[in-house]
Amino acid sequence: MSPTRRQARLTRLREFELLQSLPRRFSTQGLHPIVGIGDDAAVLPSATSQQVVISTDLLVEDIHFSRKTATMYDIGYKAAAANLSDIAAMGAIPTAIFVAIALPPSFIEEDWPEFYRGLAVPCKPFKVQLLGGDTSSSPTSLFIAITIMGQVAPGHFLTRHGAKNGDLIYVSGTLGDSTAGLAYLNQFKRPPKSAIRSKPMKYLVQRHLQPTARVVLGELLASQPYASAAIDLSDGLSGDLKHLCRHSQVGALIYSEQIPMSQQMQHYAKRIRATPLHWSLHGGEDYELLFTIPPKWQHELEKVAKKRRLPITQIGVIQPQRFGVRIEHSDHTRHVLPQRSYEHFSP
Amino acid sequence: MSPTRRQARLTRLREFELLQSLPRRFSTQGLHPIVGIGDDAAVLPSATSQQVVISTDLLVEDIHFSRKTATMYDIGYKAAAANLSDIAAMGAIPTAIFVAIALPPSFIEEDWPEFYRGLAVPCKPFKVQLLGGDTSSSPTSLFIAITIMGQVAPGHFLTRHGAKNGDLIYVSGTLGDSTAGLAYLNQFKRPPKSAIRSKPMKYLVQRHLQPTARVVLGELLASQPYASAAIDLSDGLSGDLKHLCRHSQVGALIYSEQIPMSQQMQHYAKRIRATPLHWSLHGGEDYELLFTIPPKWQHELEKVAKKRRLPITQIGVIQPQRFGVRIEHSDHTRHVLPQRSYEHFSP
C-alpha cells in the first residue's frame, strides 16, 4: 500500500463501507438475531425464559487509554473486556455488543480492522455477536461507546446491594497488576508491547492492555446461591468496595495482608520505589470481581472454585454500616480505607 | 450561584454524583426493570411475547451539533429524537435508553441537568426510561452515544429490505426543513432560539433542533400489513432512499413535484437563493420516515393516516434494480438521483 493511501484519512469513509469492510471475526453462533447489523436497529428474539442484562461503557482517548501506550488492537481488546466485565459482575452470560465509535482525522485506514480484531478476541469464547453500532468522524479524540447485552435465568443475577453484616469479602485474581503495567508503559512514547522481552513486564503490560473479564466466575457465583453482592474492579478496590458498601448499606473490614498481589507487580513496584499495597488498593482496571458470600457457603465455594481453577481470595468481612470501610494492617492497627479514585490513564 | 461555582468544571465530578443529581424527569412507568440505573448493568424482565429492538447512535460535537447553534437542552432533545427515530423506523415501541456522555472542560455544572431535561421531553410520551449509562470527562469535544431499546410483537417490525417492484414510495411530513433551520442558525455565534421572532424561522429552527420522531406512524405501519420496508430520514432522502433500495435490491423512481416541502422552507430558500428541491433531496436530519407499501394498501393506509392526522405523501414507485434510483422532473425528464450525503453540522 502506498504511503499516500496508508495515510488516507477515514473521516470521509461512509459508515456503510466501514461496516461492509468489517472483518467477520465475530461469532455468528449464540444468539440468533432476527435482524442483525446494518438496519436501523437490531431485532432480538423474545427470550421467554431469560432476563436481559444491559450495560453501556465509554472509553475516551487520553482519559481511558492512550495511543502512545496501546495499539488499536489493544484498545479494541480492552473495550470488549471492560464491557464483558460489567456483564460478569451481574453473573450474566454476554450475548451481543453494539459499538459507537468516533474517529479522529489521525485515524488511518489500517486502524479500523485492528480495532475490531482486538474487540472480537475476548468476545469469541462467549459467542458474543456484534449486532450494531454507529460510526462518525471526530474533530479531535477517539471515542468509543459500547453497549453490551447478556442474559440470566430469572432472578439469577448479582447486584451491588445484597451484602449483609458478617458476609465474607472476596476478590478474584491479583490486584494492582494493571496499574503496574501502565506505570511501565508510561515511559514510552509508542506502544512497545511487542518489543518487551522481560517476562514479568510482559505479564504486567498484558494485564493492563488485555485484561480478562471474569465471566465464568460471575456465572458460577450467580448460578449457585453463593454470592450476596458483586461488583467488578474497574475503579480500584478502595473505590469499588465503597460503592458496594454504599449500595448494600453496610461497612467493611479488609486485611492488607490478605490482598492478593502478583510477584511480578511486587517486584516491579519495589524496583521503581512504588508501594505494592497502594497499587492493589487504589489501582484501577484490573477487571477482577469483588463479591461477598454468606459464611455458610465458604467451604463449598472455595472447593468449586479450586476445582474450576478460578483464583479467589478472602480479603475481609462485611461490618455494620456505622463501622465504615476500614483496613487492618499486619500490626493490627486499623485505619479508615482512604479513597483515592483511579483516574484511568492520565496523560 | 457565584460566578466561581458557575464555572466549576465537571471533569472531576464522580459519575455517581452525576447520576444522583440527575433530575427525575424520566418515566418510571412503562417497562419495569428488575435492576435499574446505578448497578453494573440494568436487568430487564423476560418479555415472553415481545421481540427486543435495539439501536445505538452517536452524536459528536462539531460534527452532529454545535454549541454555537444549539443549547444543551436542544442537544439532549435531538439526541433522544434521533434515537427514537431509529426505533420508529423499525415500527417498534421505545422502552428504555442508555446514555454514554463524555464532558469536555468547557462543560459547566448547569449544562448537565439541561441536557437531561431536553433528553427527557421526547421520551416522556412513550414512557421511555433512562436505565443506565456512563459518564467521563473528555479532553476536547462533547461526545454522546445513546443506545435505545424498544419492543415489537413477534414479526411486526419494519426493515430496509422488503421493498418490491411496484410498491409505492411514501415519506412522512415535509423534507428539507431541518437543513433550512440549520442554514439560518449558522449565521449566529450563539444559540439565538429564544430571540427568533419570525414565526416561519421559529418553525424551521424548531424542526432542526427539536425534530419529532415518527414513532406513532412507525407503529401503525408495522402493526398492520401496510409497509414492505422503512427507513428513517437522517442522512437525507437521496442517501436513505439508496440505502433502502440497496437493502431491498430494487430501483426507484421519485417525482420531484411530489416531494412534500413546507411553505416556510420554500420561502426561506428563495430568500437566501438556495434551492428548495436540493434541501429536500439532500438535507439530513428531518427524521421523517421513508417507507414503501404494496399498491393494494394505498387506499386503506391513506384513510387511516388521515384519520389519525399522520401526514404522509406518495413520492414515487419502486422499480426493478437495473432501473437504478431516478428522479422525474415536471418536464418529464428523468435523471439519476445524485447522491450527496448529508454532512450533518459542518463548522
Describe this structure in words.
Two copies of one chain form a homodimer. By secondary structure, chain A is of the alpha+beta class. The first copy, chain A, folds into two domains: 3-152, 60s Ribosomal Protein L30, Chain: A (2-Layer Sandwich); 168-336, Alpha-Beta Complex (Phosphoribosyl-aminoimidazole Synthetase, Chain A, domain 2). In chain A, 31% of the residues lie in helices and 22% in strands. The first copy, chain A, has eleven helices and twelve strands. The first copy, chain A, has a seven-stranded mixed beta sheet, with helices on both faces. Chain A is globular, with a radius of gyration of 21 Å. The model of chain A is unreliable at 1-14 (pLDDT under 50). The interface between A and B is large, with 71 and 71 residues. Strand 1 of chain A pairs antiparallel with strand 2 (51-60) of chain B.
What is the fold's blueprint, element by element?
The structure is a homodimer of 347-residue chains.
Chain A: H1 3-6, H2 15-21, E1 42-44, E2 51-60, H3 72-89, E3 93-103, H4 111-123, E4 129-137, E5 143-152, E6 168-172, H5 177-185, H6 199-209, H7 215-223, E7 229-232, H8 237-248, E8 251-255, H9 263-271, H10 276-282, E9 289-293, H11 298-307, E10 312-319, E11 325-328, E12 334-336
Strand order of the largest sheet of chain A: 7-9-6-10-8-11-12
Q: What integer is the average pLDDT of chain A?
A: 88
What is the architecture of the largest domain in chain A at the second tier of CATH?
Alpha-Beta Complex
SSE order of chain A, as H and E?
A: HHEEHEHEEEHHHEHEHHEHEEE
The CATH superfamily of the largest domain in chain A is identified as PurM-like C-terminal domain
C-alpha-based Rg of chain A, rounded: 21 Å
Strand content of chain A: 15-25%
CATH topology of the largest domain in chain A, anyone? Phosphoribosyl-aminoimidazole Synthetase, Chain A, domain 2
Largest interface: A-B, 71 and 71 residues
Give the oligomer, counting copies of the same chain as homo and different chains as hetero: homodimer
Percent helix of chain A: 25-40%
Count of discrete structural domains of chain A: 2
| CATH top level class name of the largest domain in chain A | Alpha Beta
Strand-pairing-aware structural class of chain A: alpha+beta
Uncertain segments of chain A: 1-14
How many strands of chain A?
12
Number of helices of chain A: 11
User: Could you tell me how far the N terminus lies from the C terminus of chain A, measured between alpha carbons in angstroms?
Assistant: 33 Å
